[in-house]
Amino acid sequence: MEEATTLDHSEDVYEPSLTPDSLGKLGMWIFLIGDTMSFGALLAAYAAIRAGAGVIGWVPPSDILGIELTAFMTFLLICSSVTMVKALESIQKGNVSRMCTFLGLTILGGVIFLGLQAYEWYHLIHEGLTLTGIPEHSLKGAAISGSTLFGPTFYTITGFHGLHVTGGVIYLIVILIHGLRGRYTADFNHEVEIVGLYWHFVDLIWIMVFTFIYLL
Amino acid sequence: MAQDGHDKHPRYILIFIWLAILTAIEIGVAIPEYSVVLKAILLIGLACGKAYLVAAYFMHLKLEKRTLAAIVITPFLICVFLVIMLIPDLTSDSRHEGIEKSPAEVVNTSDH
Q: Is the ipTM here above 0.90?
């Protein structure tokens, strides 16, 4: 009896335990928090190496990298984030075909992003940005030893992000296949929401990478 | 959790326009040459603004329970702490002393 009254009394402050929907979502959030630390450590290491090299020991990244292309890549990822939220919005309204269209557009955005990154890497390697050296033209006659670390840090950070985009594209394709088979409805769509969390996170990380590696 | 934000969706297109504007401002801020510190503050501020828009509206953190937002913000604070803890290691004096001392010590021990 007493228990029943206590429960009654605290009904409006009681938080329900994890449901299958919220469990998956919490799991994704925990993964993303861990991943934030991975990227945080990589960017902090980059900052430490760069600050340690000093102003003279580090060629400005803008002398080596092209900002125009990566600005477009940033814009592309933002667009694919919008199509992702639109996909979720569609299925929450019960519109399966619209969701599949938007998921397809999101995948397309991710694939174009990866293609552009491959193109960028190909050109940078061709110009001489490797794990041990930087392009001759960016040196401008000065012997800079510290800058040899620009290559490894650049490829590690953008490569780690590229792997996340690759994983995201595969993940989205799996969800799209489920969607095409009619798995999701207006009442059952938390899996679409969870893939969305991952995809937006990849976008958010790119915003940081773009700022720290390309612009600063 | 999933049903919380069912019928109060933010206006995504508006967020998208804001993100595009902030990206354009970032590029405008990054290209001219001026104080590195000022540039860094402006760019990091703009990036944090964009990250906030993505997390709060696209990832629906604004519609979630406050506790989740507190959990999510923690690793970002720890990352800031990580950078602060690295600062003592960044002063070039301590780095070069460390590098110069060790070969000298090696020579000394081999003499004895």
A: no
